[in-house]
Amino acid sequence: MKYNVGFIGAGNMGFAIMKGITGSSMADDIALHVFDPSQEAMVRAEQLGAASEKNSAELVSKCGYIFLAVKPQQLDEVLADIKDEVTADKVIVSICAGITDDYIASKTIAGAKVVMVMPNTPLLLGEGATALAKSDSVSENEFGLVCSIFGSCGIYSVLPKDKMKEVIAINGSSPAFIYLYAQSFIEYAKSVGIDEKAATDLFAKSLIGSAKMITDSGRTIDELITMVSSKGGTTIAGLEKLRENDLDKAVRECCEACTKRAYELSK
Ligand SMILES: NC(=O)C1=CN([C@@H]2O[C@H](COP(=O)(O)OP(=O)(O)OC[C@H]3O[C@@H](n4cnc5c(N)ncnc54)[C@H](OP(=O)(O)O)[C@@H]3O)[C@@H](O)[C@H]2O)C=CC1
Ligand SMILES: O=C(O)[C@@H]1CCC=N1
C-alpha cells in the first residue's frame, strides 16, 4: 500500500521535494497529492504525477502526511483552511522557516503530530541536505518515513527542536550564500578575460571537489587549507586578503541575520 503524501504549496521548495521523491527509491511507495492556487505550480506538479486536489482541506482528508510548503506569511490562512480536517493520526510536515510545532498545534489540534524540516533546493537533483526535528506526539515509525523521504534524495540530520532556526543559515539558505560567492569568482574571471563557461565549470567543480574533500578525505578543514597553501605561494597571498577583509565576520553576521529573521517569522 502506498503512503498518501500531500503538498500544500508547490513553489520552489514544494516542487523540489516532490521532484526529489519522484526521482528517488521511495517513488513507488508514495502517492503524491498537491494543492496550490497557482495554476502553473499545479501543472508542474501534475507533470510529476501528483494528483491535483481542489483545496487544501480536501488534500488533508486524503493524506496521512501533509507537507506545509507555503511561505510563513501564508501559513495562517492554510492552517485555518485545514483545521477541521486535521486529526490525531495525521502527520504534518512543516518546511516553513521559523514555524514551531506548538504554533501549528495551537492553530489545529492539541498534540498535533508535527515534523519540522529545513530542506534545501539541491533536493531537485537528489543532492539535498535536510535538518529535521519532531514533536513528541510523532512516533518513531512516522518520523522514520519522513526521514527516509529526505534520505532518499540527499542526506539528513536529526536536530534538537530548538536548533531549527539556527540551522537555516547552514543548509536552508546557504545555497544562496554559496551561489553569491561563486558569482564573485566568476565575475573576476570574466574581468581578466577568462571565458564565462570555462570559469563557471572550473569554479563549480572546485566547489564539488572541495566539498568532497571536507566529507571524504578524513582531514580537518585546517589541514585541507594547509594542503593547498604552498609556502610563499599564491594561496597564502589570497587567504591573507580574505582575512584582512574579515570574511569570518561577514559570514558570522550573515548567519546571525538569517537566524534573527527566522525568530521574527517564528510563531
Ligand atoms: N526556497 C528555499 O530554498 C527554501 C524554502 N523553505 C521554506 O519553504 C516554504 C516555501 O518557500 P518557497 O517554496 O521558496 O516559496 P514559493 O513562494 O516558491 O512557494 C509557495 C507556494 O505556495 C503557494 N500558496 C500560497 N498560498 C497558498 C495556499 N493557501 N494554499 C496552497 N498553496 C499556497 C504559492 O502560490 P503563490 O505564488 O500564488 O502565492 C506558491 O506557489 C517557506 O516557508 C520557506 O521558509 C525552506 C527551505 C528552503
Ligand atoms: O529565504 C527563506 O526564508 C527560505 C528559508 C531557507 C531558504 N529559503
Characterize the biggest β-sheet: 8 strands, mixed
Distance between the termini: 36 Å
Oligomer: single chain
Rg from C-alpha positions?
21 Å
Estimate nothing, just give the exact number of structural domains. Answer: 2
What are the segments in which pLDDT stays under 50 over at least 5 consecutive residues? none
Mean pLDDT: 97
Structure description:
- It is built from eleven helices and eight strands.
- It has 267 residues and is of the alpha/beta class.
- The model has no long low-confidence stretch (mean pLDDT 97).
- Helix content is 49%, strand content 15%.
- The protein has helices at residues 12-22, 39-47, 56-62, 75-82, 101-107, 140-151, 174-191, 196-216, 221-228, 234-244, 247-265; strands at 3-8, 30-35, 51-52, 65-68, 91-94, 113-118, 128-134, 154-158.
- The protein folds into two domains: 3-161, 3-Layer(aba) Sandwich (Rossmann fold); 174-265, ProC C-terminal domain-like (ProC C-terminal domain-like fold), CATH 1.10.3730.10.
- It starts with a strand and ends with a helix.
- Strand 5 (91-94), helix 5 (101-107) and strand 6 (113-118) form a beta-alpha-beta unit.
- Bound molecules: NADPH dihydro-nicotinamide-adenine-dinucleotide phosphate and (2S)-3,4-dihydro-2H-pyrrole-2-carboxylic acid.
- (2S)-3,4-dihydro-2H-pyrrole-2-carboxylic acid binds next to loops.
- Belongs to the pyrroline-5-carboxylate reductase family.
